[in-house]
Design goal:
The protein is α+β, with helices and mostly antiparallel strands. The chain has 2 domains: about 230 residues, P-loop containing nucleotide triphosphate hydrolases (Rossmann fold), CATH 3.40.50.300; about 130 residues, Nucleic acid-binding proteins (OB fold (Dihydrolipoamide Acetyltransferase, E2P)). The protein is built from 9 helices and 22 strands. The strands form 4 sheets. It has a 6-stranded mixed β-sheet, sandwiched between helices. α2 crosses α3. It is globular. The two termini are about 30 Å apart.
Length: about 375
């Protein structure tokens, strides 16, 4: 049985449906991230799990225990759900020291003083906060305050951990450090974790699975590699990745396998998509290729697309280049090692090779196949 079962969860605010019939199973020990743009329903879903919002319909199960059911009339209060919750704003007691902030939940449970001191000392050491026991939150940095919030949650040993964008208030370097600490912490304590963020990098680096949401509807659930490389629809393809994936309109000219497509903007020549699959001839499709899967060549090659470089954005270890194809001047974005892009100059003519990607139905937005991957592509 999964640790968390979300069954047709629906939450409305007036006429707005924030979460629409969400169904999701989360196994014991998983780290599942709810990912999506602002207003997609991810935080509302987390608040329903925590008991801070009462859904309109559906059921929520923690193991074999039902914590909400509109059909059965069940609604378990937040304090009785046995969860740990970390907010975006830390929510520390300003008048309490680090020690007493972390010990708060244990004292409420009435544990002996010696046991409280032992457990607080252990968790502070685990999170690198030893020596800060007597400081107040105002005497700590943002990263240290977030560690205290984590320690306060974990010390009570909840089986389910809920995170509501806990790192969004921190600077980029500190966010990276705390991501590593969160991942290490999860591997040590093994608690089932639900994490809310709009940051794709956080989702990709932390999660065992990612649940992508949009307008209250679940779009795709999968491992980070599945969601990134094999998006189920155009929304997921566009949302995942920075810079965004290239989306090129095309028409199928040969069914295959491998199928061939004619890119509409330019050039008007068939490009074979390396996949053990077929596509209906004449079908209008969208070819999706991520920037790192577009290769720049200095000389023409078979099935390469002529383009002109417009700008390069070096970041140190890698470089993002913007190009426009000839003809209808479709913009293509590429990304690769900085040393490979360094010789390129604005206005230079180059040729582009699409190494791997996905093909979507232009009308429905659903993925039809993946091409160029090691397994030859998947339907």
């Amino acid at each position: 049985m999964p640790d968390i079962r979300i069954d047709n969860l629906t939450k409305r605010f007036g006429e707005v449906t924030a979460v629409n019939r969400l169904a999701l199973d989360i196994a014991h020990g998983e780290f599942v991230t709810l990912l999506g743009p602002s207003g997609c329903g991810k935080t509302t879903t987390l608040r329903c799990l925590a008991g801070l919002e009462e859904p309109n319909e559906g059921e929520l199960w923690f193991g074999d225990r039902c914590v909400f059911s509109d059909r059965k009339g069940v609604f378990i209060s937040p304090g009785a759900r046995g969860i740990g919750l970390v907010f975006q704003n830390y929510a520390l007691w300003p008048h309490m020291t680090v020690f007493y902030n972390v010990a708060f939940g244990l004292r409420k449970k009435g544990l002996p003083k010696a046991e409280i001191r032992r457990r607080v000392t252990e968790i502070l050491e685990l999170l690198g906060l030893q020596g800060y026991e007597d400081r107040y939150p105002s005497e700590l940095s943002g990263g240290q305050q977030q560690r205290v919030a984590l320690a306060r949650m974990i010390v009570t040993e909840p089986q389910i951990l809920l995170f509501d964008e806990p790192l969004s208030n921190l600077d980029a370097k500190l966010r990276m450090t705390l991501r590593a600490e969160l991942k290490h912490l999860h591997s040590q304590i093994g608690a089932t974790t639900v994490y809310v963020t709009h940051d794709q990098v956080e989702a990709l680096t932390l999660s065992t699975r990612i649940a992508v949401m949009n307008q209250g509807v679940l779009q795709q659930v999968g491992t980070p590699a599945e969601v990134y490389h094999h998006p189920e629809n155009l929304f997921v393809a566009e949302f995942m990745g920075n810079p965004s994936a290239n989306l090129i309109p095309a028409t199928v000219t040969e069914e295959g396998p491998p199928p061939k497509v004619m890119l509409k903007p330019y050039p008007k020549m068939p490009i074979a998509l390396q996949a053990r699959a077929t596509l209906p001839q004449g079908k209008e499709v969208i070819v999706n290729v991520r920037p790192e899967d577009v290769e720049i060549k200095a000389i023409p090659t078979s099935e390469a697309i002529p383009a002109v470089l417009t700008a390069t954005l070096p970041t140190g270890s890698e470089c993002v280049s913007y190009l426009k194809t000839k003809g209808e001047a479709l913009e293509i974005v590429t990304k690769g090692p900085e040393e490979m892009h360094r010789p390129l100059r604005p206005g230079q003519e180059v040729w582009l090779v699409l190494k791997r990607g996905n093909v979507f139905d232009e009308e429905t937005g659903k993925r039809l196949l993946s091409f160029g991957f090691a397994d030859g592509g998947t339907n």
